[in-house]
């Protein structure tokens, strides 16, 4: 889902704005010609246009250096990067992967420290703590955030709520389920939760474990999944199956997003990409959508926002390292960075406080129209977490990526919610398998 940002006003002026010494505006010194490869999971047409702008500005300022953009996806990046690392044919820059992927690759010794790039951008320009999740060793950063997300925001159709006599947004699971039931009918389903064996189901279910007041791991990274809270999460998730479209058994992020945007569901669970997609694809409902923090089991359990901390990192084996780091810093240059954020307004939120305070960031019709929603998501993402960093008390979980990619949590959802297996047995077996991964 997930995450990046890029270039500047002009080859020299924008780069100079990033560093007092003007280091970013001077052409990179590379022996002969260099070609830098940039991978990202984010590549919708508007984003591609922003990337082209950023690349063109960088190439103009750095003769002899060419940048090639190569898209990947949330579901395939793990296999593609595995093959790249194995062959030694790695990209120079990778963006928009979740933070746990960075910690996983760092643990395997595959990444270049990102400290130099952070300094080139300016440490003081990042929101406080924005890169805490990337501090893989004391004082050493394996990557940085390129944006923030509020991936499990609850999207609502206010017109359908009014028609169903619902006068306020649901705050608890019971209220959510009741609201979804009232709004379901006439070809419209209540919610687009995923039940497929994929990363979305795993990641979304982690949100529900926290929404029940539970944890996957304790702060010192002992397995905590096998708990009454997780059983409650499974029970609720199973109860929602009848309120989701039949195709939810195959849903990943794209299908879940489309279900709400198209009007097939009354509620949604997604990032701020909903805003641009509704305005472009289904403008009839553009004045009838809003978002809230996703409900929890009770008002006594605080919301837990899933921020996959869209990342930027550099493989250690990348060629032309000096030029690579220069381009990585260039991605944060104001003009291009804002242009990239505007390509998916509200979806990827700025990690630089200097950008969040820049009036030019709000000079976008969607961000301006939905300021309330964008500001809520920005606040939630800033306080967000994920499996690699479950709470402020948790140690970084270096095995988070392996656990998500194992599919065990999604398989647990399928076993209980689709196959009607005994929840306690399935949970116990799953917890033991995840514990084995964590200890391997």
Topology (elements, then pairings):
Elements: H1 13-16, E1 34-40, H2 45-61, E2 65-71, H3 77-87, E3 93-95, H4 99-107, H5 115-121, E4 135-137, E5 140-141, E6 144-145, E7 153-157, H6 158-163, H7 173-183, H8 199-211, H9 228-239, H10 253-261, E8 267-270, H11 273-281, E9 289-292, E10 311-313, H12 321-330, H13 334-343, H14 353-356, H15 365-369, H16 371-382, H17 400-406, H18 408-418, H19 423-439
Parallel strand pairs: 1-2, 1-3
Antiparallel strand pairs: 3-10, 4-5, 6-10, 7-8, 7-9
Helix pairs in contact: 2-13, 5-12, 8-9, 8-18, 9-18, 10-11, 18-19
Task: Provide an overview of this structure.
The strands form three sheets. A five-stranded mixed beta sheet has the order 2-1-3-10-6, covered by helices on one side. 51% of the residues are buried. The chain has helices spanning 13-16, 45-61, 77-87, 99-107, 115-121, 158-163, 173-183, 199-211, 228-239, 253-261, 273-281, 321-330, 334-343, 353-356, 365-369, 371-382, 400-406, 408-418, 423-439, and strands at 34-40, 65-71, 93-95, 135-137, 140-141, 144-145, 153-157, 267-270, 289-292, 311-313. Strand 1 (34-40), helix 2 (45-61) and strand 2 form a beta-alpha-beta unit. The longest helix is centred in the first third of the chain and has 17 residues, at 45-61. It folds into two domains: 13-149 and 308-382, 3-Layer(aba) Sandwich (D-Maltodextrin-Binding Protein, domain 2); 153-306 and 394-439, D-Maltodextrin-Binding Protein, domain 2 (3-Layer(aba) Sandwich), CATH 3.40.190.10. It is globular, with a radius of gyration of 21 Å. The protein has 440 residues and is an alpha+beta fold.
């Amino acid at each position: 889902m997930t995450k990046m940002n890029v270039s500047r006003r002009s080859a020299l002026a924008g780069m100079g704005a990033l560093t007092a010494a003007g280091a970013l505006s001077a052409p990179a010194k590379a022996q002969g010609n260099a070609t830098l490869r940039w991978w990202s999971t984010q590549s919708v047409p508007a984003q591609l246009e922003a990337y082209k702008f950023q690349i063109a500005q960088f190439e103009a300022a750095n003769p002899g250096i060419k940048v090639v953009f190569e898209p990947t996806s949330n579901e395939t990046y793990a296999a593609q990067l595995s093959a790249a690392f194995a062959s030694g044919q790695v990209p120079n820059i990778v963006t928009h992967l979740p933070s746990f992927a960075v910690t996983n690759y760092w643990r395997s010794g595959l990444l270049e420290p990102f400290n130099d790039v952070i300094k080139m951008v300016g440490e003081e320009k990042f929101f406080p703590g924005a890169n805490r999740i990337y501090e893989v060793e004391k004082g050493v950063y394996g990557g940085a955030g390129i944006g923030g997300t509020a991936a499990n925001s609850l999207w609502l159709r206010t017109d359908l709520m009014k028609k169903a006599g619902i006068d306020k947004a649901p705050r608890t699971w019971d209220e959510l389920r009741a609201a979804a039931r009232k709004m379901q009918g006439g070809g419209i389903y209540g919610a687009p939760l995923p039940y497929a064996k994929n990363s979305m189901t795993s990641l979304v279910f982690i949100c529900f474990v926290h929404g029940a007041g539970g944890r996957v791991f304790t702060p010192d990274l002992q397995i905590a999944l096998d708990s009454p809270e997780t059983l409650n999460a499974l029970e609720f998730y199973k109860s929602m199956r009848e309120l989701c479209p039949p195709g939810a058994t195959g849903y990943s992020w794209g299908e879940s997003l489309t279900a709400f945007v198209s009007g097939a569901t009354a509620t949604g669970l997604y990032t701020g990409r909903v805003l641009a997609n509704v305005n472009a694809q289904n403008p009839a409902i553009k004045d009838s959508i809003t978002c809230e923090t996703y409900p929890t089991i009770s008002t006594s359990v605080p919301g837990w926002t899933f921020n996959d901390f869209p990342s930027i990192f550099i493989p250690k084996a990348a060629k032309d390292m000096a030029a690579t780091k220069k381009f990585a810093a260039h991605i944060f240059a104001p003009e291009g960075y804002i242009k990239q954020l505007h390509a998916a307004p509200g979806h990827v939120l700025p990690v630089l406080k200097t950008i969040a305070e820049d009036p030019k960031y709000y000079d976008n019709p969607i961000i301006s129209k939905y300021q309330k929603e964008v500001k809520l998501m920005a606040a939630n993402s800033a306080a967000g977490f994920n499996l690699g960093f479950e709470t402020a008390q948790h140690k970084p979980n270096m095995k988070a990526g392996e656990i998500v990619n194992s599919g065990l949590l999604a398989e647990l959802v399928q076993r209980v919610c689709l196959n009607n297996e005994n929840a306690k047995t399935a949970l116990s077996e799953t917890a033991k398998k995840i514990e084995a991964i964590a200890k391997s």
